[in-house]
Amino acid sequence: MNQSKENPAELQFQEVYVSDMLALKYFFNELNGLAKEAPVSETFSIPFLQAKCGDEIIAFASLTNENKLSIYQKSFTSPANEKEWKTTTKQIFHQQSDVICKEGFENSIIRLTSWLNNACN
User: Fold this and answer.
1) Which of 13, 32, 62, 68 has its CA 20 to 30 Å from the CA of residue 42?
2) Rounded to a whole number, what is the distance in angstroms from the first to the last CA of the chain?
């Protein structure tokens, strides 16, 4: 879903890039009632998709070391938006989960959270 010029606060789904990780860490900690600079746990996993309304993160989805889907979200503006988010997330998860190498994935999660906790404060 692309952002239109007429409505800059339109809901968008975007892939997650390294440059998004710090904002996702802050979002994750906020949802968990922690200070934004607090260390993240391995439940943060590997984020692969985010939902934004304008510049604000509304939700993100992660692949876990059990090859499962974790969704972290605030309230959506409408049930239709939330349904679209969950449907899109599940479709992309099933596409990505088929290509993940199971060995080493847990180590990748540990390295990512360590990097976020040590290098990004």
Assistant:
1) 13
2) 32
